[in-house]
Amino acid sequence: xxxxxxxxxxxxxxxxxxxxxxxxxxxxxxxxxxxxxxxxxxxxxxxxxxxxxxxxxxxxxxxxxxxxxxxxxxxxxxxxxxxxxxxxxxxxxxxxxxxxxxxxxxxxxxxxxxxxxxxxxxxxxxxxxxxxxxxxxxxxxxxxxxxxxxxxxxxxxxxxxxxxxxxxxxxxxxxxxxxxxxxxxxxxxxxxxxxxxxxxxxxxxxxxxxxxxxxxxxxxxxxxxxxxxxxxxxxxxxxxxxxxxxxxxxxxxxxxxxxxxxxxxxxxxxxxxxxxxxxxxxxxxxxxxxxxxxxxxxxxxxxxxxxxxxxxxxxxxxxxxxxxxxxxxxxxxxxxxxxxxxxxxxxxxxxx
Length: 352
Hints:
By secondary structure, the chain is mainly alpha-helical.
């Protein structure tokens, strides 16, 4: 129930409260409020929340000063409602998603509680808020750093591990097919759906990564690497979906045993390679380097052309040959996806 982000937030809020108490300045509770509001799991997301909170504080303070001076002769409810309406309108025009809430709190608290000391309360409120934002951003660098790139690469490493296990399962199913005529899986498509969910989870980390990298993040090597990984992973996930739909037939298993054996050996090699990818993504700090070993194609797969010309293989039923052709095309596409991903990975690291 307690994770690193919660511990980091509690520690940062405690340090902020301790520093504020030492200074003896009033309204020090806003430091902890800022820390709790801005603290997030990634550096980029916390910067965005801090930016919105500071902009909301500035906007709310300006409207409070203008509204209180110009509308104090009106009934309290009317003057306050007009000021809050202007705040919501301007906040929407400026693209504030949460900052206008902070501005609304400043308008209400300043109008109802601090109307006699706005000149001192507003600067103090902004100072404590800014201090809370700065402390939160520093805590993400100092205490158990949680950065968008590490989390994004971690999600793709999870996906690659799932692909590794999936390739091994597909290979084992093929190896068992000639001997026992393995039945069709009880839940076809379940593995593909799980892989799609993991891929979507990895893609959901991209906005935080873009926020973290600042201006023109699309040119950053980290974004280029994530884009390349996403393209390769997407092609591999699509291949798994096609393989689950084109399950080997149980009729005449011995006719095409050598073709299935080449396919199984290739799947095992691809499982080993994506496992290396996953290890590289998890073990490195910063941008990971590509695996030192490239995908090694088994000899049976390289000699597949001769096997396809064998009259024994071509004597199988048309339906079975169509399924075999579909699976072999999918395997070739997966092989090419891994090769393209590795070449792109190497090129990105060379230009870094």
